[in-house]
Amino acid sequence: MKKLVLLTLLLLMVPGCGPNSGLTTVGGGGSSTETGAGTTPTTPALEADLLKSTVDSGPNQGALALDLDIAGGFLILRIPMASSLLVQLPIVSGQIAQIPGASFQTLVDANGRNAIVIKIPVEQYLKGLAIGTPGRLPNGDVLPAITRGELPTVALIIDLKKNIKLHLYLGSDQVAAFVETPNFNPFTAIPGLPVTINQLIFPVKDKRKQVLGYFGYIGSKLNYSGGFYLATNLPPAIVRLLDDYFIN
Question: Most buried residue, 1, 33, 104, 183, by CB count within 10 Å?
């Protein structure tokens, strides 16, 4: 009888053998807890600078282009433009009615450049735009750095007087934006850009030198205005992380 009691006490002292014990495992981006009722997955953690990335080269080298607002659930596109002396934009902000929860605002950064910041709910980014017909750049060219070349598009006017328009292209886990500047052709107004081509695209990289998107200058073509372009190109692994955190 003493041997039986001693054996029972020894078993209770072994981790995982108690009546209310549970086993926690960590793998991939998150963790799960095994109990008698089954496995309950927890939300994977996201790094605060997961999408923070800058233009890798060119006149706007080092300018912030992509970011992620984890708490708010927004993908942030930041389109750096030219000096505010060259491209004069009013400081405005507003909602993008065709994309629920999306918004934009204009600003002047620390280097004196105009920029347009676009916030898109991550859920909308992952699902794509339900309305709008597939579109290209206003001049008819396919969308640079977008594998399909076309995405559902919406447009809104940023400055009515100067007819500055923002074109947004949103598909499933792909988004692009083009700021049309009728009174400003990047290829003739920004020093160092060749005038013999119509597009100049630079990679957007994170701190690990991983390409997360592309930023570029679009020149005027025929009767169509030039402007500034930004597109995401998130690796599948990052898209899965976003989907696990914000959707699943």
Answer: 104
Per-residue model confidence (pLDDT) at position 83 = 82
Q: Which residues of 54-87 are buried (b: 16+ CB within 10 A; e: fewer)?
A: bbbebbbeebbbbbbebeebbbbbbbbbbebebb
Mean pLDDT score, 85-107 = 88
Could you give the CA distance from residue 173 to residue 69 in angstroms, rounded to a whole number? 16
Q: Which amino acid is located at 202 in the chain? A: F
The answer to whether the CB of 182 falls within 8 A of the CB of 225 is yes
Residue 68 main-chain phi, psi, to 5 deg: -135, 130
pTM, two decimal places: 0.81
Cα 105 to Cα 100: distance, rounded to the nearest angstrom: 16
Q: Retrieve residue 235's tokens.
A: 């690796």
Residue 212's Cβ-count burial label (10 Å; 0-12, 13-18, 19+) is: buried
Exposure of 219 by Cβ count < 10 A (0-12 exposed, 13-18 middle, 19+ buried)? buried
